[in-house]
Amino acid sequence: MFEKYRIAFSRNLDMVSFNGMLAELYGDVSGIVIEEPLPYELFKGHGTRFTQGEYASLVWRATNILREHLGIQKNERVAIITGNGIESIALTVGSMCAGAIAVPMNYLLKPKEIKHIVEDSGAKVLFTDPTVFESSIKDTSLLPTVEKWVMAGISGKAPSGFESFDELLSVSRDEVPEKINPDDTVGIFYTSGTTGFPKGACVTSRGLLSVQSKAAAILPLSKKDFGIFALPVAHIFGFAICILGSCAGAGGLIMRYFNPEKVLRYIEEYHATCLVGVPAMYAFILASQPERYDLTSLRLLGSSADAMPPEHVERMMELAARPGLIGKKKPLFAEAYGMVELTAMAAIKPAFRFFKWPPGCVGIPVPPVRTKVTDPSGRKVKRGEAGELLVKSPGVTSGYWNNPEATKQALFDGWLKTGDIVRKDWLGRIYFTDRAKDVIKCGGYSIFSVEVEEEILTNPEVEECAVIGIPHKKMGQVPLAVVSLKKGSKLSEEDIAAWCKENIASYKAPRLVRIIPIEEMPFGMTLKIMKKDLRERFRKEFGTLE
Q1: Measured distance CA(18)–CA(11) in Å, rounded
Q2: Residue after which a domain boundary falls, among 187, 206, 225
Q3: Less CB within 10 Å around the terminal CB: N or C of the chain?
Q4: Per-residue pLDDT tens over the stretch 315-329
Q5: What is the domain range of residue 531?
Q6: What is the CATH number of the domain that holds 535?
Q7: Between vectors from CA 75 to CA 242 and to CA 149, what angle results, nearest 5°?
């Protein structure tokens, strides 16, 4: 139990010494389970369960493959785009331990996004697997700047033009590399591209480990815990959760792809105690008849990346509730606030049994995180007033890769301008209001899109909703509600507009409504609606209104 505190209070940890500590403290703990056995000769007959020591060995082998067989030098970038799995984590961490800079990419990215990231980062080596290559890349000519291609996920010889990860593993050494500087850039995690092509946020060992290790020390996690992990490892949220869980020695099953029915089945089968996901994942889970499964083993639930509807929190806690000495014993539900530029977590909001957080609150900062709320000129606003959230912590990115102008706009004296409009109360609790770019300026009023979306989602026939601004000559902008309805609903756009007029304050009620199928709602890699895509689509339709 005390191992996680040793990690949390270790000074100047880098990814090499961190991985070594995991092997030392939790080496015999059977921590990682995968859905199918690895196809590599080195792991023939191994099965699907790995100890932390075996995982550490895989990391060291990946490190030495990069150094000795692929000739990777310090600070060279290594692109990794594979499905979720133990090797995708090991390749990312192994690249970092080699002194290189890992560039993990989500397997759901489109070819033009992959091309942008590879060329922007300058990666000369790329790891992929057959499924991702065939669905997202298709031809090596898409990425002419890549000099060495490595195919993972196969047994034996690789296709022409590729090196085989299987064959490289068989000749690699399980040897601990030299330590690296904890403040060196070890990874570039690209943003979701909500305002154009994604930007690469640089992260360091100190940034990755400091806040996550402190959070692991705070949360009731230990090596007795076991989670179901369906988040994309290539996203900073998923990668940070891997680090957080490993700090406590917690084990978990890594899913190749998110599937709500499988998540429910795995919870019951493995008696899982932890589940972390984004709000949309929980929505899919709750729509998959979760009452058919025994979820009472769960004792810690977590969410981030978007606002979690309170009714979803309560429903999940009820499904996992079990008899206690005084009434039902429910799991702890912890929501986290974070973003790529913060190296994941900055604030946390645990849901306690006898305490309810105020609506809209995203929690309190996780030490050593500091926050302040400022007006457009950079001056602190009064308590309770809305302004932009600024954050300072070891996790704050050192800047955007190859983008000094964006870095200058986002960072000021060590403070990150998050672009989120929030307010703080006298207890230091943070309340999310909207993304700065999503605030709609209508006739002198500031309309916070999140508030309007929350109102519309109370309509029992609405499945998803996004509110965006459409240019207007006189008003500046007017709000448009883009809505997906629940199956069987007969509501028209006029019906929804009338409902909004009746239930939402007149100055912010959308008069424009468009209904689209849920399949057309543009979700990003964390299943957050990409309002940029909706703005592009509907501004073409509406133009500038008069």
Answers
A1: 11
A2: 206
A3: C
A4: 999 999 988 766 678
A5: 439-542
A6: 3.30.300.30
A7: 75
